[in-house]
Prior knowledge:
By secondary structure, the chain is an alpha/beta fold. The chain has helices at residues 13-27, 31-44, 49-62, 65-78, 86-92, 102-112, 116-123, 128-140, 158-163, 177-186, 223-233, 263-272, and strands at residues 146-152, 167-174, 191-194, 208-213, 234-246, 251-253, 259-261, 276-283, 287-288, 291-292, 295-301.
Amino acid sequence: MRSMPLPLSSGDLLLDRRLEWARGLMEEGEAAAAAALLAETTTAAPGFLAAWFALGEACEQSGALDEAAAAFRRAFALDPTDRLGASVRLARLGAEPATMPPAYVRALFDQYAPRFDRELVDHLSYRGPAVVLAAIDEVAGPTTRFARVLDLGCGTGLMGAAIRSRAGELVGVDLSPAMLAEAQAKGLYEQLIAADLSDFPVGEVGAFDLIVAADVLVYFPDLAPVIAAAARALVPGGLFAFTLEHGEGESALGEGLRYAHGEGHLRSAAAAAGLAVRHLAAVSTRSEKAKPVTGLAAVLSRGRTAGSRQDP
Length: 312
């Protein structure tokens, strides 16, 4: 179902221009001045969602964290589906870790889809698919093929392109219809499905020999539910290969609104799901501000290794 458009305009041209002026002030480092302007704007237009969200950003930048939280709560109240991600900003301000709202993730990647490959590969030196493939090779060997492969969070098909030659049947699932349209154009997948990643595998019990998730689990504060769902979807001996951003403790929401997870949290989630950790290595799948982002590559297995080993 197509979501309703966000009320990003107040309906008043002058107030809309105030929002743009405030954004300009924030870009110039004048967050306090932007917050004052936005406070006036939201008083004049209390249903102006975009202005409330921007007010939260301006207050956060200026160090007025209580006011920022209040503004983000108001934005969330105006749009309970949370397509702007107000609950995620609240989590960064110290609330309990929040699962990324599906509407927020869908809106984010629908907008990003046309330039996704270029931005990741050219600007962020993205190498997630190659890292995942190398981790699989460490466990199963470079000549092993997998009868049925699930690409969780397949996006535009970057991981699909890397694993295609190793898969008999390749299924991709993603929350963003625009990203799936880009993947469809590449002709890599036998099946593409628009679905919430944590919900999709529920009906696919024992259906996949390999599940891959490159740069996807950074949108889950708690790894346990998605790892448990993957375990149910694997055949005996099946593998779940994925990357994470590495952090201390259970999980932490970073400035880029992506979760970093500790090794202990990963191992605990794997054990609870009945999966063995077959491979775990420090890696970097991307760069931010010209510096490698610290990450982990993991391969979990449900018992013995699946796949059919073929000699070269």
